[in-house]
Amino acid sequence: MNLFTKYFSVLCLAALGLLAACEKQEYQSVEALDNQNIEAYIQANNLTVEPLGNTGMYYQVLQEGTGAELQYTSKYPIVYTVKSLDGTYAVTDTFASTNRYMDYLAYFLGESTQGSSYANIPSYQSLFEKDEGLKYAIRTVLQKANGQIRVIVPSRLLSYGRNGNSDLGIPSNASMDYVIRVLDSASLPGYEDENIRKRMEALKLNLADYEKTESGIYYHISEPGDGDTITVDSTLTIAYAGSLLNGSSFDQSDSATFVLSNLIPSWKEILPKLHKGGSVRFFTPSSQAYGASGGSSIPPFSPLDFEITVRKEED
Asked: Which end of the chain is less enclosed by CB atoms within 10 A, N or C?
């Protein structure tokens, strides 16, 4: 055997070995990777969860629902948190718009693309038509409103799937851990009142200094004012600051002029308790502010914190 033949034989054997190695290499499926990540997460965090049939999801009912049976065709106020199993992505501020939902249960995905505004867009319709994911877990396991559930969702059931979402900071193959509270309209006032009181306590405000109206507003007049009487028809120049219950400001001004009758119900109820030159702080439930749906910069069913001083300018 000449040198060339020997060299060619070695190359052939090497190529055959490499081919055999390639044939033996196994690629992990998305399902297998999801299952591996979820099982490791459950074990590492000592979670008490159960598999939801063959869906790949795991659940734990944290608070049994006490309200009416949940229906896809009904609207519910929903508050939720979500984090990826590796901890690189977490959205946990329940007062932020990303964590509050007020719409049909059928359109709830627990992601930024959800709700009625997307329901008629062809590229999203298939997502809403699937009876799977969070809405399926909520309806079949939680079953009733006014309850809370934890759901671990494999990446393959989420819209960003295997690729993740770099714009949101969601890594690839990111399965998610959700904690979801589903309310109903009847329980919403009590839920908001509880959150207002917690916020006041966190601010170390003396609750005894605040009066509560029949509509659920907590207010404290620090300066009653000695100018003209304020009525619902008054035109007012005011300094004000408005905040969500997480402390983030959504609006403020050192000098703004408004006709009081054009403003939200809580302003029309509280400001006539002052004279011009007066100052007040009040916490209002959403029913006396921007309602269950919220506004452009106000998340759904948001209680609000206002600090207002009315100037003495004449009407």
From this structure: N
What is the domain class of 30-182 according to CATH? alpha beta
Whole-structure pTM value: 0.86
Query: Vertex 151, ends 106 and 45: CA angle to 5°?
Result: 165
Type of residue numbered 279: S
- The residue with tokens 């009040």 is 282
HEC sequence for the chain: CCHHHHHHHHHHHHHHHHHHHHHHCCCCCHHHHHHHHHHHHHHHCCCCCEECCCCCCEEEEEECCCCCECCCCCEEEEEEEEEECCCCCEECCCCCHHHEEEEEHHHCCCCCCCCHHHCCCHHHHHHHHCCCHHHHHHHHHHCECCEEEEEEECHHHCCCHHHCECCCCECCCCCEEEEEEECCCCCHHHHHHHHHHHHHHHCCCCHHHCEECCCCCEEEEEECCCCCECCCCCEEEEEEEEEECCCCEEEEEEEEEEEHHHCCHHHHHHHHHCECCCEEEEEECHHHCCCCCCCCCCCCCCCEEEEEEECCCCC
Q: What is the CATH number of domain 188-310?
A: 3.10.50.40
As annotated, the residues of the chain forming the CATH 3.10.50.40 domain(s) are 30-182, 188-310
